[in-house]
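Supplementary material to the annual report.
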Amino acid sequence: MRFCSACGAPVELKRPAGDTLDRHVCSACGEIHYRNPKVVVGAVCTWQDRVLLCRRAIEPRAGFWAVPAGYLEFGESTEEGARRETFEEACARIEISGLLGVYNVVRIGQVQLFYRARLLSPQIAAGVETLELDLFEWPAIPWDELAFPSVRWVLQRALELRDHAGPYPPALGP
Amino acid sequence: MRFCSACGAPVELKRPAGDTLDRHVCSACGEIHYRNPKVVVGAVCTWQDRVLLCRRAIEPRAGFWAVPAGYLEFGESTEEGARRETFEEACARIEISGLLGVYNVVRIGQVQLFYRARLLSPQIAAGVETLELDLFEWPAIPWDELAFPSVRWVLQRALELRDHAGPYPPALGP
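Predicted assembly:
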């Protein structure tokens, strides 16, 4: 952040009156530009007790396995975002049944929400950001080749809840 | 968004290769600027079955009642953010015990996470963004003078769970 997105003038780091932190403040128009965490949404999608995983075609962590997930767009709900990401990465439609985990990855400013979902059919196909994909039996999940820690956390949470039909709280973590 | 925050040149709305939506793209350096939803965090805080509410000193909805809540900062977790907002607005320390609700306010690009929490003491005091505050018995909550719909939703959720000790899922909504 070096320039004001409202007027194009240089910004400077300073503490606005009444604030407790330094912010990027425009030297010309005075606009305060906050640095905001981003929301990532995803879904653990199953079909007859098998789990959908996609091998990433893009960085970061190209070649590693993940559940469908990505940045929430302005104008969609977190559930809509999880459905969109699943469709983009796996050409698959899902029905969401609950919230599995809320993970804070503070260092990179991400709040990640993962849902539990059921594939509406076993027809899946790799989207442009996916090298290959498959429906894995739980013991066959490539735990050592997962793309991100939160993929492991949420798969572990889904595995804990595998035979659990009642209400459950999401994992809060890490 | 009119200028590139990286180089100060004008941005234009256009669709990057492989993208499905128009984005603000810098006409000079090519940087893509995404419009991201923001995260709001808050807490329903109780002391001996009474609920902490704060009357807002600031817009929007100055003069109306709310639970402590505000924008998540980069560099803190959602739980840390809820604790910070409670301290800023009510000078109160809390212990969080679970996630009560995840609300999407799509029109304004907000994902709101509200926790259930216990005040560590009944000592509370109005922060600079608070006109007055109090611990309300549940029947005394000013339902018609609440600041935002999500305040009503999460108070209703907390009331449903008032005598509930076991695990519970957060309300997902609206």
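Chain B touches chain A through 43 residues (CB under 8 Å).
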